Automatic annotation (TrEMBL), chain A:
Belongs to the leucine-binding protein family. Gene3D superfamilies: 3.40.50.2300. This is ABC transporter substrate-binding protein. Residues 29-389 form the Leucine-binding protein domain.
UniProtKB/TrEMBL annotation, chain B:
The chain crosses the membrane at residues 6-28, 35-54, 60-79, 86-106, 136-157, 188-206, 226-252. This is Branched-chain amino acid ABC transporter permease. The lineage of its organism: Bacteria, Pseudomonadati, Pseudomonadota, Alphaproteobacteria, Rhodobacterales. InterPro entries: ABC_transp_permease, LivM-like. It is a multi-pass membrane protein. It comes from Ruegeria sediminis. It is found in: Cell membrane. Keywords: Cell membrane, Membrane, Transmembrane, Transmembrane helix. It holds the Pfam family BPD_transp_2. Its main location: membrane.
């Protein structure tokens, strides 16, 4: 009797052990963490990115997850940290993420956070004299040009504004040969908008033969634009280019409408090709033309946009990057053969970094994204314009 | 562990910022110029290491001394105004400094790269610590040694005649003048000392974040600078430290998980703290060791308290 009980107990134990091992295999997880501004003035960008990441990982997990080195499958778990678009907080958040079992971080939202954040990372991989943080970051939103070069641990999937605006002004020159002058409006205290006007839009416009007849500056927190609009009206420009985020873009557009300023072409900042602009000033934004690396122009893009909306966010060029980052990381993890154990964490992070650095192409929602050796990307894009409270594709340079 | 060391670094630089305002507040002056001094220190120390290859210690000291000189110069005209007018005047100075750096472009070539302030783009690559092999715990130790030295110095000053003079001017200028105290020297001296501490704090800050830009040194930072000593209480330097831990440690880092609600709760908790402790978390009078350990105060202290009450 005792022997029978002993055998039965042993059988039960072995079965339980086998079942728990199987369950553990199924329960394997890898962590990919997002961070950025999900509160404050630009909080909507972080909220959309968070929703896009969440939707993308849900899709990946539903399709079986990612494959580890031993051939087993792992689910991706994620969370999102708020840095309030503050450099000190961004650094603190990244250090916190690096102390967890996260393989890589996706973020940040703001370029003024990205720049110091990338500065605390090791500049050159394997440089033993550099004690910077060794943790891979794959940026989705912070779009100011040239930031990936700060550290070899940084990769970005943000579109090349230099290429997009160069093409846009070339296209405007070709389609509106009679236009001669341009007036710029810039949100001066925001790294992205300022850089894009002075280093991108203005140079591209001049290169394609447009004369810059004036510039108006304002700040992110400004609410009165009458002086800036008055200066604009005096010059009667053919084109007005506004390099500002949706909040002040709408303020300026409303003031332009009030002062009856009607340029023949209105150009906006990439970040303003979003729902916020339309919900803030759809009527005044009518005709606003913006190059963007996302528009729901194919089945993949449409279904991704629907999945993000279901998660409470909106798909725009920034959150589309977050979605694409998740998909690119899935492929990199599958190819890199990570082990996904606490002991292999540092090696796994390095494998992901190396995997990203060797990519030359990655599939995006609008087509193939080119990965550049410095960690930046060149993505397919279209020109959209605001029409009847929606964004409509005006021109597809790739077609 | 890196995260906690990083957090200690934030506490350290904010403590220096708060102490810079504490010294000025002791003389009854509310200065919103501390963010401007902090910015001068940040850019100066960044320039010393990133542009001219100096060691961090002289760089931070130069930043402190340069800022002290600027603060001394600012201190004289600021003497002509007081109260709200001083707040406006120092706020204007802070904005002036911020806009100066907004427009400052001065770069030199180092290692094939242009390094230095680049207007609104900011000042990138202030990477003295990682480039020179400093581990994060060493950086944290360096910061806290400086913080400790400054705190000990202020604690000592607070217990000397100089400290009594500062507080006397802060309590009642007319009475202080009537007993022969030189108000100009005291106020300008406090402003200079505050500038020195803010300059050192800014210099260290620049090296912990590696990139600085004008936008960081705005009104919000100036408000934080005076909020620390006011929230902590002017009774002792430890009030500022407690307030930094409360704001940076609890309200900002501890409540991060609350998302959007954090900002709302942030304000509400500060209002609550000020209502519960109107003279600051540690009060107007520094707690004595005897009180902390529950020992009875002696008759001399009691008689002083009675006199104060009268």
């Amino acid at each position: 009797m005792k022997l029978k009980s002993f055998l039965a107990a042993g059988l039960v134990s072995v079965s339980a052990l086998a079942m728990s091992t199987a369950a553990m295999a199924e329960d394997k997880t890898v962590r990919i963490v997002g961070f950025g501004a999900s509160s404050g003035v630009v909080g909507i960008f972080g909220q959309n990115s968070s929703a896009a990441m969440s939707a993308a990982f849900e899709k990946i997990n539903a399709e079986g997850g990612v494959t580890l080195a031993d051939g087993s499958k792992a689910q991706i778990v994620t969370e999102y940290y708020d840095d309030r678009c503050n450099a000190e907080e961004g650094i603190s958040v990244l250090r916190r993420i690096a102390t967890t079992d996260a393989l890589i971080a996706i973020g940040p939202t703001c370029s003024n956070v990205a720049e110091p954040l990338f500065g605390i990372l090791q500049a050159k991989v394997d440089d033993s004299g550099d004690t910077g943080l060794q943790f891979p970051v794959f940026t989705d939103v912070a779009i100011k040009g040239g930031l990936a070069g700060i550290s070899e641990w940084v990769f970005r999937n943000t579109p090349s504004e230099a290429k997009m605006y160069d093409d846009l002004f070339a296209w405007i020159r070709a389609t509106h040969p009679d236009l001669k002058t341009i007036y710029g409006g810039v949100e001066e205290d925001f790294a992205h908008s300022r850089f894009t006007w002075y280093e991108v839009m203005k140079k591209a416009a001049e290169q394609h033969g447009f004369e810059v007849v004036g510039e108006a500056q304002w700040l992110l927190s400004d609410t009165n634009f009458s002086n800036q609009a008055r200066g604009m009206r005096r010059e009667e420009p053919d084109i007005v280019a506004i390099s500002a985020h949706p909040f002040t873009t709408c303020g300026m557009l409303r003031e332009m409408a009030r002062q009856k300023i009607q340029p023949k072409v209105l150009v906006g900042l990439t970040s303003s090709s979003s729902l916020e602009t339309l919900s803030g000033c759809a009527a005044e934004a009518q005709g606003l033309t913006i190059p963007t690396s996302f528009a729901p122009v194919n089945d993949d893009a449409r279904s991704a946009a629907e999945a993000v909306v279901a998660k409470g966010g909106q798909m725009d060029l920034h959150s589309a990057s977050a979605w694409e980052n998740a998909m690119i990381l899935r492929d990199v993890i599958n190819a890199a053969g990570i082990e996904g154990t606490p002991e292999s964490l540092d090696a796994d992070r390095r494998k992901i970094r190396d995997g990203l650095s060797t990519l030359t192409e990655a599939q995006g929602l609008l087509g193939v994204n080119q990965r550049l050796p410095d960690g930046e990307a060149v993505k397919p894009y279209v020109f959209v314009h605001a029409k009847d409270a929606g964004w409509e594709v005006l021109h597809d340079p790739g077609s | 562990m890196d995260f906690y060391f990083g957090l200690l670094q934030i506490f350290g630089v904010h403590t220096l910022l708060g102490l810079s305002a504490y010294v000025v507040l002791l003389t009854g002056q509310v200065s919103m110029a501390q963010a401007g001094f902090y910015a001068i220190g940040a850019y100066a120390a960044g320039a010393c290491t990133a542009m001219f290859g100096m060691h961090i210690l002289p760089a931070v000291l130069i930043a402190g001394l340069l800022t002290a000189v600027v603060a001394c110069v600012v201190g004289f005209p600021a003497l002509r105004v007081k109260g709200l007018m001083l707040v406006v005047a120092t706020l204007a100075f802070g904005e002036m400094v911020r806009l100066f750096f907004f427009n400052l472009t001065w770069q030199v070539e180092r290692g094939g790269e242009m390094v230095g302030p680049n207007g609104a783009e900011g000042f990138r690559s202030i990477r003295y610590f990682p480039e020179n092999g400093w581990e994060i715990w060493q950086v944290t130790g360096f910061i806290w040694i400086i913080v400790a030295v400054i705190m000990v110095a202020l604690w000592w000053v607070d217990r000397t005649r100089a400290g009594a003079v500062l507080r006397a001017v802060g309590h009642d200028e007319t009475a202080a003048q009537s007993i022969g105290l030189n108000l100009t020297a005291v106020k300008v001296g406090a402003m200079t000392a505050g500038g020195f501490i803010a300059g050192i704090g800014g210099g260290i800050y620049a090296h912990t974040v590696t990139h600085i830009e004008h936008g960081v040194f705005g009104v919000l930072l100036a408000t934080f600078a005076i909020a620390y000593p006011i929230l902590g209480g002017l009774g002792s330097i430890f009030g500022t430290l407690i307030a930094v831990l409360f704001i940076q440690g609890f309200l900002i880092e501890g409540l991060r998980f609350m998302g959007d609600w954090r900002s709302l709760l942030f304000g509400a908790l500060i209002v609550l703290a000020m209502n519960l402790r109107p003279t600051g978390l540690l009060g107007e009078h520094a707690p004595r060791l005897s009180q902390l350990f529950g020992r009875k105060t002696n008759d001399h202290d009691k008689s002083l308290e009675l006199k104060e009450a009268e």
